[in-house]
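Thread: quick sanity check before group meeting

JM: Hey all, I'm pulling together slides for Thursday and realized we never actually wrote out the predicted structure for the chain we discussed last week. Dropping the sequence here so it's in one place. If anyone has concerns about the input, flag it before I start.
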Amino acid sequence: MNESELPADLNAVVDRALDEDIADGDRNAALVTDNRIARARVIARENAVLAGAPWFDRVFAALDERVTVNWHVADGQRLIAERVVCDIEGPVHALLSGERTALNFLQLMSGVASATHEYVERVKGTRTDIIDTRKTLPGLRSAQKYAVRCGGGLNHRFGLFDAILIKENHIMAAGSIAGAVARGREQSPELFLQVEIETLAELEQALEAGVDGVLLDNLPSHVLARAVNMADAHRRRFRQQIVIEASGDISLTNVREIADTGVDRISIGGLTKHVRATDFSMRMQS
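JM (edit): ok, ran it. Output follows.
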């Protein structure tokens, strides 16, 4: 991942995390009276995909600019269990105070990247991309979406402001799919507009309304395949680009079957909602 892809709120997120953990002082690090220069090493305890190095770096930079981190693996690369991930050197107080916050970012984000990578591997050879959703941990959305990219996935809309997804409640409030789409086009013509549909009849209405994409929610594979054929026929007839997305009850067991229907992308809330942290340890070196 290159630096231009880092979220604008990275520093603020790290600063909040440090304040949450340290507040007005680390009483534990204060037990060490000699603030000598120390060395530490971070080790991955399981196979994973690394994500979160810039957040890890920022933790120690915020505590003491003398801390240096030497990475042996880059974000987005595979980790082998018991591999040394990075070496750290700096004042011992900074290393002790920053350990937990730095590892928290690394374990959370690597967990997201690793889960994403598993899904991406399952759909290799298809035209389908794996994407995330807005089901993220509050305050950590940009970090988790970065981690999804590290795992080889793509990002859906960031929030309610940068794309329009018309769902069942919006349709009921607007009176119809056509009415909701027309209102969305009128208010924000520059935004990607997508409609969530649950039946082939709703799909036909969405296509006729001129949407940019459809979200096929909780449809069985044979119905998904029919929906893809309908959307592809509409694409050819009107020379219109339409993104076909599947979502709902997606697992590693069925994701390949769903991808084989020909959908363009599969959105999985569990990538950022059901996070199993990657196990890392940080050990001081003598």
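AS: nice. The chain has two domains: 3-117+275-285, 121-273. The radius of gyration is 23 Å.
JM: adding both to the slides.
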